[in-house]
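Q: Could you fold this chain for me?
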Amino acid sequence: ENEKEILLNQLSTLRKQRQQIRQITVPSIQQHTTEWNYHFSTMQHSHQVVMSNLQSLQNRRIWMEEEFAQATKWHVLGDVFLIWHRGAFGTINGMRLGRSAVTS
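A: Sure. Below is the predicted structure, expressed as structure tokens.
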């Protein structure tokens, strides 16, 4: 019977210690969990912003490549100056190149 009381007292003591440990550690664990959740949500938001910027830059790069491909097809001098020939003489915008008409 005496041994039973000793064991019951030890059990009671252990339960009290466990309760004290819970009172000490649970708030700390909750605080750390809250902090980690905050950091996680902040990093998740930063990740979303970076991915959005990346997608925007990729779309802009594609657009610029298409614009560049179109620009390489331009013939600026051909659009500004009509280069042709009239007989043996070349012309630019209808003006004859070479010897003058008066000179033989």
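A (continued): The mean pLDDT is 89.
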